[in-house]
TrEMBL record:
It holds the Pfam family GST_C_2. This is Glutathione s-transferase domain-containing protein. Residues 74-199 form the GST C-terminal domain. It comes from Shewanella decolorationis S12. It comes from the Bacteria. SUPFAM superfamilies: GST C-terminal domain-like, Thioredoxin-like.
Length: 208
């Protein structure tokens, strides 16, 4: 989701090759032996195999000024974006995985993992009490890089109402996940096979 959102925001036309991890094609393993997704191969042959790096590449190499501004227009904005994404990836994501798959981590209860993960949600809620997006009045890389994980978190237990404890966060999540660009990123693709007619991911305009 991160990679697709970044490429859409950067209005990059790339060929999409949807794969199943249970049957990784040789073509993928040839360019990225570690066998994880996403993988972006540039025309130069360079390979980028981290979703956040794909996002940064797409936003840096776009002709869209609006897309470039998502990286942060001031050093303080750039630092806050980096800080929030790092906290998401390093602190929140491991707790999210344990909350999501609590039966695989019997050391503690799912309630415990929920509480640990909620620490990050509390910070996001505090940010969103101040402005409609994570770092200010307009969207940034932080919004798009973090929203897929918050979406995963809220989907673990559909019966749990998070809107009471995190009203601003849930409103933010609803706005982003119902946006045209997010819905485009969520589109399903036919599993790729050699010889298939190429399928392209086309860029969308950015909604402020």
């Amino acid at each position: 989701m991160r990679a697709r959102l970044g490429l859409l925001l950067g209005q990059c036309q790339v060929e999409v090759r949807e794969i199943t991890l249970k049957a990784k094609p040789t073509e993928m393993l040839t360019i990225s032996p570690k066998g994880t997704v996403p993988v972006l191969q540039l025309p130069t042959g360079e390979v980028i195999a981290e979703s956040l790096e794909i996002m940064r590449w797409a936003l840096t190499n776009t002709h869209s000024q609006a897309a470039q501004q998502l990286l942060g227009e001031t050093p303080s904005a750039q630092n806050l974006i980096a800080e929030l994404i790092a906290q998401n990836d390093v602190e929140f994501k491991p707790w999210l995985d344990k909350y999501k798959y609590a039966d695989r981590y019997p050391e503690y209860t799912q309630v415990h993992y929920f509480a640990k993960a909620s620490t990050f949600l509390e910070r996001l809620e505090a940010q969103l009490e101040q402005h409609p997006h994570l770092i200010g009045p307009t969207l940034s890389l932080a919004d798009f890089a973090i929203v897929p994980f918050i979406r995963q978190f809220t989907a673990v237990d559909a019966k749990r109402d998070l809107s009471v404890a995190f009203p601003h966060l849930i409103n933010w999540l609803t706005r982003l996940t119902s946006s045209e660009i997010f819905l485009h990123a969520m589109e399903k693709y036919v599993i790729w096979q050699a010889g298939n007619t190429p399928t392209y991911l086309l860029g969308e305009s950015i909604s402020k």
